[in-house]
Structures are given as C-alpha cells and as structure tokens.
Amino acid sequence: MSQLLLSALAVVCPNCDGYNPPRAEVCASCGTSLSEAPATAKPPPSRTTPASSAGKPTPGISRTPPGAARPPESPPGLRPASSRTPAPVASAGGIPLATRAAPGVAAPRSPVVPLTRPAAPATPAAAPAAGVPKPAAAPASGARPAPAASRFGLAVVAGTTRGQRFKLPVTGCTVGRTRGAILFADDTFVSAQHATFLIKDNVLHVRDESSASGIYVTIPGAETIPPMTFFVAGQRLFRFLGKLEAPPPLAGRPTVYGAPVPPGQGVYGVEEVLVGGRSGRTVVTSTPLLTIGQANCDFSYPQEEGMAGRHCELSFTSAGAQLRDLSGGLGTYVRVASSVERPLRPGDRVRLGQHIIQVELMG
What pLDDT tens digit does each residue of the chain (363 aa) get? Predict the structure, then answer.
C-alpha cells in the first residue's frame, strides 16, 4: 500500500476495531500497539470482503468517507453504543414495545390503555325514568307527521241496523241513505247525504247537511231553546212556538172577542208536528210550565214506546224556554240547525230518521 494512502486513511485497531488517526502507533481506545501490526494486516475473516467486489469496502479501510464527521470515541473496553444497542421496535399504533436503556438509566414508561375501562363513547341520551313515556322522535325536516288514530266510535242503538258499530277515522265521515261511509239505505226519513261527523281539536262534532228531516241530539239534563225549535220525546216530534201575542186591533174594525189574558202573564204555545210537516195538536198555556209524558201531562200519550211517565217539561222565559229531560235515560232530543257543528260527548245520542247512534270512546 502506498505511503500516500496510509497518510490519508485512519488506522483500525486489530483488537477493538477502533478508529485511530493516520500513522497512529497506539490505539486510543484500548492501548494496543499499532506499530506491531503491519499496515496491510487483514481483519478477522468475519469482516473480510473480497477486494475484487465492485462497490464493496476494502478490508482494514474505514467506512467513513473522507471529510465526514468521525464517530465519538468510546471509553476503553467498550464498543460504540451504535453497534451495541438495537433500535426500538414500534407497535402498530406507534408506541415502542421494548427499549433497551443504557446501564444506570431508567427505561421510559410507555402509555398503557386500561382493559377494564374502555374509552367512553359519545355521551348517550339519558334513559327515561320508570313510568315516564319515551318522547316521540322528531319528524324529518319537511316530512309531515302521521296523524294520530281516532278514539271515537259510533254504535247504532235503534233502527233496522241496530247493533252495528263503526270506528271513525281522524278525517271524519258522512252518513246518508245513498252517499257516505255509513248508509241507512232502508230508512226513508234519511236524506241521500244526511249528516257529517268530524273531529276538531280532539272533540267530535256533528253537522246537518241540509237534510229534509234534520238531526237531533240528546240534551245534557237541561237546555235553553229559542222559539220555533224542534225537539223529540219518544216517537213524537214537537215545535216550541214561543210567546203568542194577540194581533193589534185594526183601525175602524171591531176587536175579536176572547178571554182576557191574566195580567203580568204571557201565553206560550207548543205544537205536535205530524209526518210530512203538518201541524197536529197544539197546547197554548199561560202557566209557567208545560209537561209531556205518558199520563197526567199537558201532552199525554199513554203507553207510548220510548216515552217515560213524565218525559220532559218546558219552563218559559222571556227569551224562550228551558227544556228539561226527565226521562231517566230514554233521552230528549233537540234539532241541530243546518250547517251548525254541534260538539258531542261520549254517551250522547244522535237521531237520524228512525236510527239512533250513540257516541263511544274506542280503546
């Protein structure tokens, strides 16, 4: 090997493989004499590489390129740390599984994930307390919520279709002889489209669709009625005429003779209405009370079907009369004005022709 090359390359110690300055005679790492070893001494076989291999380092020649920084010097008897300490192995999550620390230095502690306390998910909604109904989910934006089911039903308690029951939809229904959801085809007193049942604000209503015979609803104990109101007791139809006034005398003509009206009292009339709208028997009275029933009444109908002994009474007032039901559950009905929506309660009965319908609450 030329002297020029020896003066430029570092000397490798044959004992500890340490690097020394060019032409050094003693190893700075282990103190071994370098003058005894020939400059051309070969390293151990395990480090020998054939000189003929292209691109491979030559035995005894430093692996550090000229001008590069030298590795730090190791204390005597120790090999460089870079050749003794293996690189740490990382887990899939990037956390080192094992690290070999230098003697006297504590190994770093890796974070530990508890097995019995998993990471908490997003805060769940609080469970509803016992007995508290779970709130309904809010409808999607733009979606129309489904309507709640109706809880009203109708039961036919009188007529040729007695015993039938109907559950009303939330949109209501119509009743008639030829048109509607509920048909009474054999009842000649029912119009083609007679009445409509509808639900508003969770209350059932009934409306007369300009029928010929009208619809009648039971009164809750007592109800004030104006003049010319129709009402039903048993199978009889009546009309309250109101207060009757004597016609004023005409100038130049004589006054019609009659009994004097008691001072301070009025005269009121009630008439029975026959089939076809004709007027029947009429009672005109100046007493403050008029009664209807089977016996001992102003209108008496012995053994009348569906009529109590004293079925109802009218007490007259300046605005009309108060109709009071005394039937004990048989019912006294008043006619609903055309196109008026009358509210109904469970247990109320509605009369359409010869059929009577009772309002029920469905389960």
Answer: 555 555 667 777 888 877 778 777 788 778 788 765 444 444 555 554 444 444 444 444 445 455 555 555 544 444 444 444 444 444 444 444 444 444 444 444 434 333 334 445 555 555 555 544 555 555 555 555 555 567 899 999 999 999 999 999 998 999 999 999 999 999 999 999 999 999 999 999 999 999 999 999 999 999 999 999 999 999 999 999 999 987 888 888 888 888 877 777 889 999 999 999 999 999 999 899 999 999 999 999 998 989 999 999 999 988 899 999 999 999 999 999 988 999 999 999 999 999 999 999 987
Q: Are strands 355-361 and 152-158 parallel, antiparallel or unpaired?
A: antiparallel
- How far lies 334's CA from each of 119, 262, 270, 358, in Å? 72, 31, 14, 15
Closest listed residue to residue 303, CA positions, set 247, 235, 362, 203:
235
Q: Tell me the helices (H) and strands (E) count for the chain, helix number first.
A: 2, 24
The pair of structure tokens assigned to 202 is 């969770």
Tokens read off for 10: 């570092």
SS3 state at 240: strand
Specify the DSSP class assigned to residue 57.
Answer: P
How are strands ordered across the β-sheet holding 332-335? Answer: 165-167, 152-158, 355-361, 349-352, 215-218, 332-335, 229-233, 236-244, 267-273, 279-285
Beta bridge partners of 293: 300
State the Cα angle at 99 between 96 and 105, rounded to 5°.
135
What predicted TM-score, i.e. pTM, was given to this entire model?
Answer: 0.59
Whether 13 and 34 have beta carbons less than 8 Å apart is answered as yes
Closest CA to 355 of 215, 167, 198: 215
Contact partners, residue 77, CB within 8 Å, separation at least 6: 30
Do residues 331 and 339 touch, judged by C-beta distance below 8 A? no
